[in-house]
Here is the input.
Amino acid sequence: MVVLNFGHPITPSQLDRLKELTGREAEQVIEIKVQVEQDAVLKPQAVDAVDRAGLNSTQWQTAPLLISLPGYSPVAACILAEIEGRRGNLPSIIKTRPIPGGLVTEYEVVEIINLQEVRAEARTRR
Here is the structure.
């Protein structure tokens, strides 16, 4: 499994949790910094972020991908649209939440959301 991380750095405990949830080892974690220029057009910035994953056309279409999205929702939406266009389907994403009661803010992996399944289920409610 390849993890594309557009968000906060992924910790070893988060990788352990991903393995627990998916039953797969993360063969590769690709860290992609996303710093949005608010005065610039967003779409090219999202395309650039996805380009920096460094995957070729075959990898986009065949690799088991897991995506950690950035927190800024407009760029997250653009990144998802770009990935869907390259893959031909929606990816699975990582949901995290702050660990309560900590002295510093740390995040734990809560679940994996298969967006293609969400889409398929939504189509039944048309």
Summary: The longest strand covers residues 107-114.
